[in-house]
Specification:
It is a single chain. By secondary structure, this protein is of the alpha/beta class. It has a domain of 224 residues: NAD(P)-binding Rossmann-like Domain (Rossmann fold), CATH 3.40.50.720. Helix 2 links the parallel strand 2 and strand 3. Helix 1 packs across helix 8, helix 3 runs parallel beside helix 5 and helix 7 packs across helix 9. The longest helix is centred in the middle third of the chain and has 21 residues. It is globular. The relative contact order is 0.14.
Length: 336
């Protein structure tokens, strides 16, 4: 642990009122579980109830307050903050699928940009209640850069719809801090994987499902695209650690990268999964048909290490083992 890193009290989340947008998503589901484990009082904004979500499968949904509505509805956000007096806000709600964004940009821009400025404005208006805001950005906000890894001082150069939506949301958060001193921190993560991701177009769940079904996984790209992969439980804890530190002047208004700092190609990731599922693995079918995706992306997480003392708790193998086990259980339960 860096002696100069932020060290909040161990009971920081005990009975703290927290609003989580995007709570039925991959990261949101695990974040809610982690917050509950630490004693937080959680309110979740849920647009559509998905009983297959880890939020519901885990039973966490029965232990929280649920506000139904959309990020695009400002009144819903105000009601969630005021009714439950949520002191901390985790903004994870977004249309998060790159392929959907490319095919259907309007809904993505509405959710990711309008939804973010609505959320920030609701927090600004109700500063008497809200004391800290965590905005979930992404490495996609950086866009394509010739020099890697991404560092937090790099320009945000999104070009395609999903990247642009994340660049805009990130810049909006910075604007609300610099213009209105909103206590915001921004998290930029690499590619997040873990149990509960039921978007089969994504690499990790798609490959695991294909192996379990005994068929070749389909790779949209040429297999050489590089990404920085990080396990979902590491991300949930990173978000909490960053939110805990918002009052520190080195954190407030700033962005922090979270990743393993070990870029892997798509085919490298397929091979890593195959090593843990040797009896079920199949050679992938490579389509080389990806559109609107950046070739190479990976992050420097040195700032998070230095300021927050953050380290991922899971190695790639450990994270994948837990993820594969989750999907094995999922498909058994689905077949019953």
């Amino acid at each position: 642990m860096n002696p100069h890193s932020v060290t909040p009290p161990a009971d920081f989340w005990l009975e703290r009122r927290v609003l989580v947008t995007g709570a039925t998503g991959l990261i949101g589901s695990w974040l809610v579980q982690e917050l509950l484990a630490r004693g937080a009082l959680v309110v979740a904004l849920v647009r559509d109830v998905d009983p297959r979500s880890e939020l519901y499968r885990s039973g966490a949904a029965g232990r929280i307050h649920v506000v139904n509505g959309a990020l695009e509805d400002f009144a819903v956000l105000e009601r969630a903050i005021n009714l439950y007096e949520t002191e901390t806000v985790f903004h994870l709600g977004a249309q998060s699928q790159v392929v959907v964004a490319q095919r259907y940009p309007l809904a993505t821009l509405e959710s990711n940009i309008r939804g973010t400025y609505n959320l920030l404005e609701a927090c600004r208006v109700h500063r008497g209640i809200v004391g800290r805001v965590l905005i979930a950005s992404s490495d996609k906000a950086y866009g394509a850069h010739e020099r890697l890894p991404y560092t937090e001082d790099m320009a945000l150069l999104g070009r395609h719809p999903y990247e642009v939506s994340k660049s805009c949301a990130d810049l909006l958060a910075q604007a609300y801090h610099h213009s209105y001193e909103l206590p915001v921190a921004i998290a930029r993560c690499g590619n997040v994987y873990g149990g509960g991701d039921l978007n089969w177009a994504r690499l990790v769940p798609g490959v695991i499902r294909a192996f379990l079904q005994g068929v070749p996984p389909v790779i949209r790209s040429d297999g050489r695209y590089e990404r920085d992969y990080i396990y979902v439980r590491d991300v949930a804890r990173a978000y909490m650690q960053l939110a805990e530190a918002v009052e520190d002047e080195r954190v407030r208004g700033g962005a922090f990268n979270f990743g393993h700092q070990r870029p892997l190609s798509v085919l490298d990731m397929v091979a890593a999964i195959a090593r843990l599922m040797p009896a079920e693995a199949r050679e992938p079918e490579v389509l080389d048909a990806a559109v609107g995706e950046i070739q190479r992306q990976h992050l420097s997480a040195e700032r998070a290490r230095a300021v927050l003392g953050w380290r991922p708790a899971y190695s790639l193998e450990e994270g994948l083992r837990e993820t594969i086990a989750w999907y094995r259980r999922y498909f058994v339960e689905e077949s019953e």
